[in-house]
Amino acid sequence: MFDYTAPAQLLKNKTILVTGAGDGIGKAAALTYAQFGATVILLGRTTEKLEAVYDQIEALGAPKAAILPFDLQSSDEQNYIELTNLIDSEFGVIDGLLHNASLLGMRTPLENYDPVTWDSVMKVNVTACFHLTQALLPLLHRSSNASIIFTSSSVGKKGRAYWGAYSVSKFATQGMMEILADELENTSNIRCNAINPGATRTAMRAEAYPGEQPDNNPTPDKIMPLYLYLMGDGSLEVSGQTMNAQD
Description:
This protein is of the alpha/beta class. It is built from 7 helices and 7 strands; from the N terminus they run βαβαβαβαβαβααβ. The longest helix has 27 residues, at about 115-140.
């Protein structure tokens, strides 16, 4: 596991938006960021799940979170403009953005891949990341030190049979992070990196590997040290890197 011990108030006075915050790694990241002092904006599709995370943050005595129900699959450019205007009016600045939400899609040969499912996976995993990043960049520029974290995968580094749109989307995510990091280098206070979570005990992992024994994989909270490191000021000089949460 990535070895990093974060100071107690690592994220104090920071506002961080987490996509897919209602479950799995997104939920763990939102709770962890709040525990270390951040005001967390919980973005996800299912209001009930976001409300449950909100209540857990309240119980921690952490800064009050915000709930933003938002469907990445059906949203268009105007929805992102309205979302940004809302965040701007409430917070005025974003210090961190964690792109966590993803769809798995089908585990089948490309020859048999359903085009509708393909489009859905690419919309959530790639296009939504682009739209949300582009929309929020003006608020990220207002931060003294901002961090954008993308979610990578081992199948986004080397293609693997039957991983279809998910694998292709993670190659695209990797490229998007590297392009943005290069564009912002030496001209901005924003750093961009990617995390490969590795095999983690989540619903998506269980869907991808139904025959796997889930207890052999760490729970999402166990991989949070890297998520803290890249979001905190200890990583100010780190950009354009892809790191493994379980190395």
